[in-house]
Design goal:
six-stranded antiparallel beta barrel; globular; Phage protein; 1 helix; mainly beta
């Protein structure tokens, strides 16, 4: 099910001015296959996959489930109607008590 979410654009993003915008898409927890695309140092963080209606950029921050998620990988599937992004939790590595997907 597609839902609205907000994206905060970093000041060094080259396609949209710094600030906040709305986007729409499907967000779900990343699996091991998706984590192959995560930069080596970010694989210890909880991660999500975002299938978005509008383009995002590296470093954008997605607000989802009262958490901030930083985009670390992008793929353009606009020919199929969406943009793919892998985002890691913006604060702290994953752990057994992280609880980020407990209520998802």
């Amino acid at each position: 099910m597609s839902r609205k979410f907000t994206v905060t654009h970093s000041p060094d993003n080259d396609w949209q001015p710094e600030g906040v915008s709305n986007n729409r898409g499907v967000i779900y927890p990343a699996d091991m296959d998706a984590l192959q695309f995560a930069p080596e140092g970010t694989r210890l963080h909880d991660a999500i996959v975002v299938l978005a209606a509008r383009r995002m950029a590296y470093g954008d921050v997605v607000a989802w489930h009262n958490e901030s998620w930083r985009v670390v990988h992008l793929q353009d599937y606009s020919d199929y109607g969406y943009y793919y992004a892998l985002a890691v939790r913006a604060k702290g590595p994953a752990g057994p008590d992280s609880g980020v997907f407990a209520d998802a």
